[in-house]
Amino acid sequence: MTIDVDAVELETTTSFGEGKETLEQQLSGFPIYKQYNKLYQEFIAQNKETLSIKERIAPNLTGSTLSGPEKIEYRSPTLYFISDTYFASQDEIALETALENNNDDDDANLNSANYSITFLYLGDKVSGHHGIVHGGLLATLLDEITCRLAFLNFPSKKGFTANLNIDYKKPTVVDSWVCIKCTTLKKQGRKCWVRGEVYVIDPDTESLAPSQERCVGKVLIIEPKVDYQ
Length: 229
Fold this sequence. Notes:
It contains six helices and nine strands; from the N terminus they run βαααββαβαβαββββ. It is α+β, with helices and mostly antiparallel strands. It is globular and about 45 Å long. Residues 130-203 form the Thioesterase domain.
């Protein structure tokens, strides 16, 4: 897939019908949402480049075709935690080994952050088996949202998926909130590897626990040698 995240600025919050306000209110009341917003405010106080990020919803598949009542009913603006260090240099990045030894408390490490957080509400019409979110939809969301993070680590802010591997751990039920966390693992030249994790949201906790993880993917994104439209 290809997305130009720097092309045009559009609102990335998507919600439909009379439930819009209710869904926003639900999300804003979750401890985990409050926690990540608190971390984000602390982060941007020291890392100003993140505030310059502009995106558009593309492609039409997740932004239009799959969005609507009982489908992707709500999509929050993505919270980017990308240290100014990466925006300034965009040299090679090797975070994978360090991340394997880290725990969730390291989310607040402002000097090495290179990840994103997105919240979505998935309705009944995105099921495969009855009551279960289609695995292909989760793969598509992982593909798109990991790419958005990878592109921001390229000088051109453009790229395409070369490889996507996903391990499905537990079914994701429909009519539920999910959080997709994407983390840059490594960047070498025009190649960038990103891990994407889908979690179901526990409305009573402020952290993402392993028991909430539903699938995890590793994506290789490549920056094109020449510009494209």
